[in-house]
Amino acid sequence: MGPSYDGPIWSNMKYTDILWDFNGTILDDVGAGIISVNKLLSERGLKTISGVEEYHKAFGFPIIEYYKRLGFDFKKESYETLAPLWVEQYLINVRSANVFDDVLPTLESFRDMGMRQTIISATELGMLKRQLKDLGIENVFDEVMGLDNIHAESKVALAKVWKEKNQSAKALMIGDTVHDVEVAKEIGADCVLVARGHQSRQVLEGCGVKVFSDLKEVLEEYDIFDDN
Question: What is the DSSP letter of 10?
Fold first, then answer.
């Protein structure tokens, strides 16, 4: 558990809390994801993903639909069988992945402003905590919330649990997918997206929220202060 705060230091701030997506927002793991799913595709004689552009066209939540778009035949092999095989490959390939360079400075900036910071991720909680420990950032966040299974269905339920515990909070969600916008809307949070993760800028710009190239831009260009 990271440091806790009574609220923002400055009274004119819009937010008390920052809600972070993990994969593709904090962790630069798109490459690891592509390599992992390509292994499964290749073993089944299916067309592999040629690169990030093709990956962006296919990826989305729920993950089971993403698998269908890639050509996996669930009549031959169930999603419940494939999911742990992907996780096995991912845990090998993600060892070479790191947090984006601007993550720690951004976390520090929000912390210095007095905002609480929580991860809400579609990653299974135990796996998520191990990844955070391996990356050396397990103690940076006030709370870490992940799913109780490896099927990456939705983060909405997690966000609702967080909101129930923090009903007076004013939150900004930072993510890299359409699903992050959906999650934010479900709990009445604002959302900004960073277009360097699991979905393309073109897709993200159709969500009706501000889209940035990196976290440095978020800090410099997004207004986190109340105009009143």
Answer: S
Report the relative pairing of strands 143-147 and 116-124 from DSSP bridges: parallel
Query: The tokens of 25 are what?
Result: 């927002």
Rounded (10°) angle between helices 79-93 and 63-70: 90
Q: Report the distance separating Cα 185 and Cα 122, nearest Å.
A: 17
Q: Single out the residue of 10, 12, 23, 17 nearest to residue 196, CA to CA.
A: 23
Helix (H) / strand (E) element for 109: namely: helix 103-112
**86, 52: one domain:** yes
Contact 193, 209 (CB under 8 A): yes
Is the torsion defined by CA of 197, 198, 203, 209 positive or negative?
A: negative
> Where is the domain boundary, 44, 65, 96?
96
Phi, psi of 123 (to 5 degrees): -80, 145
Write the pLDDT tens digit of every residue in 67-97: 999 999 999 999 999 999 999 999 999 999 9
Total structural domains within the chain: 2
CA 15 to CA 219: how far, in whole Å?
Answer: 13
pLDDT at 153 over 70: no
Residue 151 and residue 106 share a domain? yes
pLDDT range class, residue 212, cuts 50, 70, 90: very high
Is 21 in contact with 171 (CB distance < 8 Å)? Answer: no
Identify the domain boundary among 59, 76, 96: 96
